[in-house]
Amino acid sequence: MSAPGRVGKIAPSILSADFAELAAEVARVRAQADLLHVDVMDGHFVPNLTIGPPVVEALRRRTDLFLDTHLMVDNPGDLLEAFAKAGSDRCIVHVELGDPRPLFDRMRALGLGVGLVCNPDTPVEAVIDHLAEIDLLLVMSVHPGWGGQAFLPEVLEKVRAARAAVDAAGLPVEIEIDGGISPVTARAAAAAGADILVAGSAIFSAADPAAAARRIREAAWPSS
Ligand code: DX5
Ligand code: ZN
Questions:
Q1: What is the Å distance from ligand 2's center to 117 Cα?
Q2: Is the CATH number 3.20.20.70 carried by domain 9-220?
Q3: What are phi and psi of 175, to 5 degrees?
């Protein structure tokens, strides 16, 4: 369970924003965004194809928000420097690609925060082994590739296990969950121990994205 008084964060995922109006979309959610989640897909690691460093560079010029970059790509090591130069604050790499430690070293050397992510079918042990090396653990609550998919409640057990491991070791690791987050699913995700909720379609399909983000925050952390 999350500790009393824990302040949770909302990370709008721009994947569901109008890419032709990206700066305006970010401005519309700014008041309720603690950071921004940028989904990078290469058409190989996942079938979908999205954006790369030039879009991060353009975003960086238009917002002071912390930019988290979720790399759903086969070759994250080849892209870290470009994202660091473009203005990413942290990169998140998938544990399914194999030993992530060389990537962590590259990220640290580039001044990037270090995030590690596991897919719904990946056992939590694969990431728990790395908790002392990272700043952020992301637990996918959908199979990555698209926004707007249904939340997979079975991953909550992994969030609980990660929360227990982080708290037991007293590590400064934030736990994040990504996929299918809405005012309906947010409470269970927060109660399981997530510090950061990523939400794309629930925020950017709404007429008022900031109000939608606030509804997720209030559902997750009712006293906040
Ligand atoms: C899915 C992405 C998510 C996506 C979430 O592959 O990693 O960040 O934007 O979208 P929603 O919140 O609509 O499930
Ligand atoms: Zn993502």
A1: 9
A2: yes
A3: -110, 130
pLDDT band at 7; cut points 50, 70, 90: confident
pLDDT at 3 over 70: no
Query: Which residue type occupies 148?
Result: G
Distance set, CA 78 to CA 49, 53, 89 (Å): 17, 12, 17
Ligand 1 pocket, mutate which of 15, 40, 68 (most atoms under 8 A from CB): 15
pLDDT tens track for 125-177 = 999 999 999 999 999 999 999 999 999 999 999 999 999 999 999 999 999 99
39 in active site: yes
- Ligand 1 pocket mutation, candidates 37, 45, 178, 182, criterion most atoms within 8 A of CB: 178
pLDDT on residue 2: 40
Which strands make up the sheet holding 196-199, listed edge to edge? Answer: 9-12, 196-199, 174-178, 136-140, 113-118, 90-94, 67-72, 36-41
Contact 178, 15 (CB under 8 A): no
Q: What is the pLDDT of residues 42-79, one digit of tens each?
A: 999 999 999 999 999 999 999 999 999 999 999 999 99
Structural domain spans, the chain: 9-220
The reply to whether ligand 1 has any atom less than 6 angstroms from the CB of 141 is: no
> Are 1 and 191 spatial neighbours (Cβ–Cβ below 8 Å)?
yes
